[in-house]
Design brief:
With 382 residues, this protein is of the alpha/beta class. The chain is globular.
Length: 382
Amino acid sequence: MSTDTPGIDPLEALRAPRDPACDVFLTGPVFLDIIFTGLDSAPVRGTESWARGMGSSPGGVANMATALARLGLRTSLAAAFGDDHYGEYCWDALEQGEGIDLSMSHTVPGWHSPVTVSMAYEGERTMVSHGHEAPAPAGTGTATGATGTGAPTGAGAAAQVFPRCPPRARAAIASLTPGRSEPWVAAAARDGALVFGDVGWDETGRWDLDALPDLAHCQAFLPNAEEAMRYTRTDCPRAAAHALAERVPLAVVTLGAEGAYAVDGRTGTAAAVPAIEVEALDPTGAGDVFVAGFVTGTLADWPLADRLAFAGLTAALSVQEFGGSLSAPGWAEIAAWWQLIRTCDRQDPAALERYAFLDDLLPTTARAWPLRRAVPTIGFRQ
């Protein structure tokens, strides 16, 4: 994490003495991600491929937790950590490096950390993961269940840790799983948290919104275009967003290279923001970063279009670096981009006006672009 990131608190003007100490709570499995970049093509069976870049970082739910923390939100994470060097590294990187509250997390004796190897090439990625379900520690009031945000859901995936009594928070992020209801989601909503729900591919093939019982507790639902259309039986992402807005107060559909579209079901307001064109190095965690940016703007009470623009910007910045949590941008990166983009001769002034709201948020000076991040690895001695 950058040590000279400006200390911007996007919620500073809204904070009051009786507010929750936690801005956002989330839970899920933490993976140790090993990322290879600079591959010219997909690995070929029977051959050895050499990558020009490599790095390691906490992954899985750590991608979103890091993105939230780097945007200045007080973030609490409940997760199981392996009792190995990988687990120790991930814990220290999140708690000491990113300032994430891990008081609801725990280390599982004798359990090894789940690992994902991600290979990025041609703007896409291929992932191979391994892990075993983590047992819930006796007497902790937690339960294990389906995998959570940002994690694979196939066989062997590490289990998510669901606290029965989540901390009081402004917001919570839940990964909705078909056929499963998690009591902590309803508890968080009853305690006043705005619940943001995302969802993965429905392996059952049913694509039934009624099979997502925790959707009833969500303030916002953020599927991608394919998921949204399948769940609503529509053939247009925008039509899908309007259909979802009949089931949840705020529907946000991500459109990949075309940006994002959102509908406020309470007011009927709709907003569309195009994507920012960037040279993508590694798309790992970009969806998590988008959600983190949208949650930040929502808690800060920004207009809907500004929230979409900010979320898209943070996601675009993230794909220019490798890794999920490693690539999540902070305010220094956002400020440097805004400073640079206004000096480019070929920029459309009307397009730049879409991001004018950044002027009231960012410091007057920023580091030069491009920025270089720390490249984490395991085994270096201080």
